[in-house]
Amino acid sequence: MLLNEHETAWKGFASGRWQHEIDVRDFIVRNTHGYPGNEAFLAPISDRTKAVFETLKPYFAEEAKKGVLDVDSAVPSSITSHPPGYIDRPNEVIVGLQTDKPFRRGIMPNGGYRMVEHGLKAAGFEVDPHVRDTFTKYRKSHNDGVFDAYTPEIMRCRRSAIISADYWRWER
């Protein structure tokens, strides 16, 4: 980036510490303002939105009775892991479910396999055997990598509840 472009990139923003170091809070505090109005600027609900919501009502009722309705426990979730999912395709303007159908949850074992396993068990589901093998034999989750980086002293502090993972991550 040319110096001149760099100088004009911040035009219109209040200057501050954020220009010289990474400080998102400083940028937000200096450059955003609350909205003092009410919801009057919003458009009323459209017929298409009403139709989509009507399609979802039975799912909401069923989930309220049973809890988690469905889980894809065989495919770790990512932005490209599932085919497009729709609620009411002819009426949808904004599309894109996290999985391939409404109220079907995805799993994210990259963040922590044991969390996925315990969460599925609590909801009455089991981890797919292929996912279990992959994340217990061949691949580390993020949490596994973090714990591998801990020294024995840090692990003792974690086990005794002197520090938490968040403390170690943000305060060192």
Q: Going across the biggest sheet, name each strand in turn.
A: 1-2
User: Element order, helices and strands?
Assistant: HHHEEHHHHH
Stretches where pLDDT is under 50 for at least 5 consecutive residues are 167-172
Report the span from N to C terminus: 33 Å
Compute the number of strand runs: 2
Number of helices: 8
Instruction: Give the amount of beta strand, in percent.
Output: 5-15%
Helix and strand content put the structural class at mainly alpha
Shape assignment: flat
Task: Give the overall pLDDT as a whole number.
Answer: 88
Task: Describe the sheet with the most strands.
Answer: 2 strands, parallel
Determine Rg (CA atoms, Å): 23 Å
The domain count comes to 3
Helix content: 40-55%
Name some characteristics of this structure.
172 residues; disordered C terminus
General description of the model:
With 172 residues, this protein is mostly helical. It has three domains: 3-41, no CATH class; 47-138, no CATH class; 140-172, no CATH class. It has eight helices and two strands. A two-stranded parallel sheet has the order 1-2. The longest helix is centred in the first third of the chain and has 20 residues, at 47-66.
